[in-house]
Amino acid sequence: MLKRSALCGAVVLLIATGCVGVAKATESSSADSKSHSKGRSPASPAKPLIRDDLLLFPEAEPDMGPAPLRVKFKGEVYDDDVVQPKFTWSFGDGSAESHERNPTHTYKEPGKYKVTLYVIDYWKRKGTDDLTIVVEEPGEDR
């Protein structure tokens, strides 16, 4: 396995879920890399070289039904090097946000709601995505 210092001038490509990120490794000697690592605590993860944004995929089950509608949400981050992700769900109905990765929320009123998932990680990389929940009148059959 190569160390970062061995990647001097190399171009690293990542192809994941249809997206391509490119980063150029910086030239440094082993002495330089030792001096740079002194400022970082041993518990700090290595900063990723590839992308500055996160790919998210929010899911909801069910995403349609009569009120009151209890929905289970699932937040997925498609990034192998995500570190300490923090999740924020906005349910679109004026209720408090949730910071759980996979929250459950009940919609009491009929309507169409835009749900937004926002994630930020240790390195301040961010991602956002949304989905729609449709709540029908109670007893309404499709």
Helix-strand blueprint:
Layout: E1 11-16, E2 19-24, H1 30-37, E3 56-61, E4 64-66, E5 69-77, E6 86-90, E7 104-107, E8 111-120, E9 126-136
Parallel strand pairs: 4-9
Antiparallel strand pairs: 1-2, 3-5, 5-7, 6-8, 8-9
How would you explain this protein's 3D organization?
This protein is mainly β and about 140 residues long. The chain has two domains: about 5-35, no CATH class; about 55-135, Immunoglobulin-like. Helices cover about 5% and strands about 40% of the residues. The protein has one helix and nine strands. The strands form three sheets. The protein has a four-stranded mixed β-sheet with strand order 4-9-8-6, with no helix packed on it. The chain is elongated.
Comma- or semicolon-separated keywords:
142 residues; mainly beta; Immunoglobulin-like; 2 domains; four-stranded mixed β-sheet; three-stranded antiparallel β-sheet; 1 helix; disordered N terminus
